[in-house]
Each structure stands twice: as structure tokens, then as C-alpha cells.
């Protein structure tokens, strides 16, 4: 479909123009993009593989690039013949999938400019075993035969282990002996548990990361990301985290420290800008807000490119689709299979309750304390809302198999949601439709019918309208991620939900990758020759120093 209107950022939420050194994330305005409907598949004519991201997002974004940017052919021709990529903490493989989608879309739209160019995924990395198996299953074609899948980002440079090539001695090329590895794009979503509150002082953060006096997941994973920028020549990086700028001053100071560390990474340093992006502004109906750090290597790129990337990011925003467009019918085999799995699990749990005497006394006591705690919470909430506890179950839910498959605590969370929906309906206000019943009753994330709450690795998202939980493949769809259904059957719904909860929204990452590739600067042949000569000289000096 052709776009007939130019996208404009909302004036109330548009980003203010500041330099990257001010360490202020850019809030991209709400999307005013065109329609974004049924799923689009990008066909790879050579391998026959199908890449699918979200909806009509690829066609719409490519159409806008063609209209908004001049000399697109020249920009694409200037890209290296081999687009080298690598990513840490790969999860569902969203980054690799998006790079492939962008590459094949460019090939289809601009075949002459893309002639002779290839994508080379140098490495992926994932520590959890089931996620390794997911990546090996979904990225199993000839295009990924040489892509290393390292099992630990923190040991890649000195004791690497590769899940894809267990019989090989895979290494991460990092110096003159191996030939310096150069990456056009590097991606990582480092852990965020400690970064939103701790280490406001730059010196303390530096010590925590490099001296290992606090081996939290945040310090370890961020240090691993910095090691890549230090030991590999990276032209551009895209790093993701939660919004570090919370309402407390500690978050603000820590955000500035992260920017400072990224700007000083590598031999030449990076131009860095952070973008605060909402998934709902890129077509997916999810209340997800994430911080993306985009860095350009100062050795080959100019700071002005960040302004152009920001401008195109705004121009690629999409109208949001309703959740139904991403959901499966209740009669779909995958939905029925998950219901059957939950019913079997509940049956086994009921049988296990008859064997409480076989449990360790400490475990029984622990379970009793937890049950008493949530019951107390539910009683307090019911009293606050002036409703009788335990809550009455409506007739339709008494016959609902999905409702009966929930635990007693989760059922009551559904009933609290129903009570809130009915109260809002009577008041003529926007009703609640979705709620994450895994959480405690007084803090259940909830949303209206326009969007879902932010998906988390442990989410149990109940749809009041459909009277069921959303299953794992649907949660991936709501991140605009689609894989062949036959392959997804190899993984349980809870595993897929875990993947979706940790994943990037694919349309957001697609906009970032397209905006970045369109504004990378390539050196002229003479500049490249000079750079190669200097590189050879530096390697020779380094070798001489080691000999001395």
C-alpha cells in the first residue's frame, strides 16, 4: 500500500534537540503513521526461507525511506559488500531476524544497489540452554552454518564455548594474530537489575564493572558489552535497557554514567545518543517502553548522523494495530494444546497435594506462609473495594475450562479484574480487558482493549473478553515476532512467554536498524587505504612491543 500522508511526531511528546553529551534520552513522539495490517512475509528467493516481522511494517517503512531520503541507491551502494553483525544476550534472536528482514527488503526494493552484498552473522550469544536450543532451531539454515552461538558472553574472549560448533575450537577474533574482526552492527540488551538505582557516582560504577566487587548481572553483562566495543572494531552499536531515568535522582545520575562509559569505549570512542521508544508507536499494541543506546564509531562516523537517525526514526512510526490482529482463534490447535497441558499440570498438582506428608517440613511451612500471605492481601483488597471475600464466581466462568485451569490465587485475580471492569463500565469509563494474573492482586498490571500490559518472562496475561490466557506464540506475535509454527511446537508455551518477555519489539528494532543503515558513512577508497595502512602499522608496533 502506498503512503499518502507524511508521518508527523506529536507536538506534545516530540523530542527536544540536544547534543549527545547532555545525556538526555530522546522521547520519540507518538506515531501518526499509516495503516499496518495483516502479516507480511519477505521471501528469500535463494534459500526459500521466509522472514516475517509484525505486519505491513516492512512495506510501509521501505516506502517511506524511498520518499523521504534522496540517493537511496547511493547510500546502499556505499555499504560494505559484507554486512557483518553480532549480538550478545540473543534471546529469541530478534536482532538477527530483523537484520535479515531489512537486508532482504533492501534486496527486493533496490536490487541493483544491493547486488553482490551479503549478511554475515558472526556470532550470537545466549547462556540459558533452552534459549540456545531455540536459536539453533530457528536459525538453522545455510546462512547461519558458520554463525557461532557462544554460551557465555563473559568468557567469549578467553574461554569461549560454542553451542553450534561443539567439536570446533571457536574463538572470537580480536587481534593481529587472528585478523581484527570488524562489525558493522553490534547489538546487546544488557541486564538492568542494578542500573536503575545504584552507582550514581561514576567512580563507584567503574569499580563495580571492572573490578568485580559487585558481580551483579548488570555489571557482568554491561562489562561484556564494553569488552566487545574495546576489542572489536564496531562501526555502530544498538544497546537496549529499561528506562534508567526514573523519578528518583539515582536513576538520572546512573543514566549519565552509562552514557559516559559508552562514549569512551574503544580506541576512538563513540558518538552516543539514547532514544526512549514505546512499542505502541511502532504498530504493536503493548505498553512497552525501552531505552535504546545508538553509538557511532568516531573513527569513521560523524555526530551529525545521529540527528538524521533520529529524524528517520520518527518518520518510520506506525499506527497501532488492535491486539486481536496478533491473537489466535480459541479453536486454534496451539491454543487447545496449551489448555490441555495446563489441565494435565493441574491434575498432577492435585495428586501431589495428597502427598504432603512426603514433603520436607520446611517446604510445607514455606508453602503455608506464602498461601497465608496472598490470602491476606486478597482479603484486604476485597475489604477496600467493599466486596465479599472469597469472591463469587460468575456462572459463565464456572463452566470455563481456561478459568478452571488457573490456580486459586490466579482465579481471584481474574475476579478482581472483572469487578474493576464492571465498576468502570457503570461509571462510563474505559474498561479493563487484559491483566497479568501472575502478579499480586494489588499490583496486577492491567490495560484496556487498545493494548496489553508490558509482557514479562513470567507473564500470565488474561483476556476478559476471550476468557482465556494468551499463549506463548501470541505473546511473541505481540512483540511483532513470527517464526514457523512447526518449529514453535518444539517449545512449550511458558518457554515462549519467557522469550517474548525478554525480547525486543521487532518493529522497533527494524526501525532502528533501517535508520542506522541509511545513515552510516563509508570512507572513500583512498581513506580506506590510509586506514588499512595505519592499521598494519599499529599491528606491527603492537607485535614489536610484545616481543620486547
Commentary on this structure:
Helix 3 links the parallel strand 4 and strand 5 (118-125). This protein starts with 25 loop residues before the first strand and ends with a helix. The chain has helices at residues 57-68, 72-77, 94-109, 129-138, 202-210, 217-231, 249-263, 304-315, 333-353, 361-384, 395-398, 401-404, 408-426, 472-477, 485-488, 493-502, 506-517, 525-547; strands at 26-27, 41-43, 50-53, 82-88, 118-125, 148-150, 182-188, 233-241, 270-278, 289-297, 434-436, 446-447, 461-463, 468-469, 481-482. By secondary structure, the protein is α/β, with parallel strands linked by helices. The strands form three sheets. It has an eight-stranded mixed β-sheet, with helices on both faces. The protein has a four-stranded antiparallel β-sheet with strand order 12-11-13-14, with no helix packed on it. The longest helix is centred in the last third of the chain and has 24 residues, at 361-384. It has 18 helices and 15 strands.
Strand and helix layout:
Blueprint: E1 26-27, E2 41-43, E3 50-53, H1 57-68, H2 72-77, E4 82-88, H3 94-109, E5 118-125, H4 129-138, E6 148-150, E7 182-188, H5 202-210, H6 217-231, E8 233-241, H7 249-263, E9 270-278, E10 289-297, H8 304-315, H9 333-353, H10 361-384, H11 395-398, H12 401-404, H13 408-426, E11 434-436, E12 446-447, E13 461-463, E14 468-469, H14 472-477, E15 481-482, H15 485-488, H16 493-502, H17 506-517, H18 525-547
Parallel strand pairs: 1-9, 4-5, 4-7, 5-6, 7-8
Antiparallel strand pairs: 2-3, 3-15, 8-10, 9-10, 11-12, 11-13, 13-14
Amino acid at each position: 500500500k502506498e503512503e499518502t500522508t507524511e508521518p508527523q511526531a506529536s507536538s506534545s511528546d516530540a523530542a527536544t534537540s540536544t547534543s549527545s553529551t547532555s545525556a538526555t534520552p530522546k522521547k520519540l513522539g507518538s506515531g501518526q503513521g499509516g495503516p499496518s495490517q495483516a502479516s507480511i512475509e519477505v521471501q528469500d528467493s535463494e534459500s526459500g526461507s521466509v522472514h516475517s516481522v509484525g505486519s505491513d511494517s516492512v512495506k510501509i517503512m521501505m516506502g517511506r525511506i524511498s520518499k523521504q531520503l534522496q540517493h537511496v541507491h547511493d547510500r546502499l551502494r556505499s555499504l560494505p559488500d559484507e554486512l557483518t553483525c553480532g549480538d550478545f544476550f540473543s534471546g529469541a534472536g530478534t536482532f538477527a531476524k530483523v537484520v535479515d528482514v531489512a537486508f532482504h527488503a533492501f534486496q527486493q526494493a533496490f536490487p541493483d544497489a544491493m547486488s553482490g552484498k551479503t549478511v554475515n552473522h558472526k556470532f550470537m550469544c545466549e547462556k540459558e540452554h533452552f534459549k540456545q536450543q531455540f536459536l539453533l532451531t530457528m536459525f538453522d539454515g545455510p546462512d547461519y552454518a558458520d554463525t557461532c552461538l557462544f554460551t557465555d558472553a563473559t568468557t567469549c574472549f578467553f574461554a569461549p564455548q560454542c553451542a553450534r560448533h561443539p567439536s570446533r575450537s571457536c574463538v572470537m577474533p580480536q587481534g593481529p594474530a587472528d585478523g581484527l574482526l570488524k562489525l558493522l552492527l553490534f547489538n546487546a540488551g544488557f541486564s538492568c537489575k542494578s542500573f536503575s538505582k545504584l552507582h550514581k557516582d561514576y567512580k563507584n560504577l567503574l569499580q563495580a564493572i571492572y573490578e568485580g566487587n559487585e558481580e551483579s548481572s548488570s555489571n557482568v553483562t554491561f562489562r561484556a558489552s564494553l569488552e566487545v566495543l574495546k576489542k572489536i572494531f564496531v562501526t555502530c552499536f544498538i544497546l537496549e535497557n529499561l528506562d534508567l531515568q526514573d523519578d528518583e535522582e539515582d536513576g538520572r545520575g546512573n543514566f549519565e554514567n552509562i552514557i559516559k562509559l559508552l562514549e569512551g569505549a574503544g580506541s576512538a570512542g563513540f558518538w552516543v545518543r539514547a532514544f526512549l521508544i514505546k512499542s505502541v508507536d511502532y504498530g504493536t499494541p503493548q505498553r512497552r517502553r525501552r531505552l535504546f543506546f545508538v553509538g557511532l564509531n568516531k573513527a569513521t562516523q560523524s555526530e551529525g548522523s545521529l540527528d538524521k537517525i533520529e529524524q528517520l526514526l520518527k518518520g518510520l512510526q506506525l499506527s497501532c494495530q488492535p491486539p486481536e490482529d496478533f491473537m489466535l482463534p480459541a479453536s486454534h490447535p496451539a491454543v487447545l494444546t496449551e489448555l490441555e497441558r495446563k489441565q494435565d499440570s493441574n491434575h498432577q498438582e492435585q495428586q501431589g497435594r495428597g502427598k504432603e506428608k512426603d514433603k520436607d517440613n520446611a517446604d510445607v511451612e514455606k508453602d503455608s506462609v506464602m498461601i497465608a500471605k496472598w490470602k491476606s492481601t486478597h482479603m484486604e483488597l476485597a475489604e477496600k473495594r467493599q466486596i465479599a471475600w472469597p469472591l463469587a464466581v460468575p456462572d459463565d466462568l464456572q463452566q470455563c475450562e481456561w478459568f478452571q485451569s488457573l490456580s486459586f490465587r490466579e482465579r481471584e485475580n481474574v475476579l478482581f479484574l472483572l469487578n474493576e471492569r464492571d465498576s468502570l463500565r457503570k461509571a462510563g469509563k474505559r474498561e479493563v480487558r487484559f491483566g497479568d494474573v501472575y502478579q499480586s492482586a494489588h499490583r496486577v498490571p492491567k490495560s484496556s482493549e487498545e493494548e496489553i500490559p508490558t509482557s514479562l518472562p513470567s507473564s500470565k496475561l488474561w483476556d476478559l473478553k476471550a476468557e482465556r490466557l494468551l499463549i506463548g506464540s501470541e505473546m511473541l506475535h505481540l512483540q511483532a515476532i513470527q517464526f514457523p509454527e512447526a518449529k514453535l511446537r518444539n517449545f512449550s508455551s511458558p518457554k515462549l512467554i519467557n522469550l517474548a518477555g525478554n525480547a525486543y519489539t521487532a518493529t522497533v528494532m527494524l526501525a532502528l536498524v533501517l535508520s542506522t543503515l541509511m545513515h552510516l558513512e563509508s570512507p572513500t577508497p583512498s581513506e580506506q587505504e590510509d586506514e588499512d595502512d595505519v592499521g598494519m602499522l599499529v599491528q606491527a608496533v603492537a607485535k614489536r612491543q610484545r616481543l620486547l
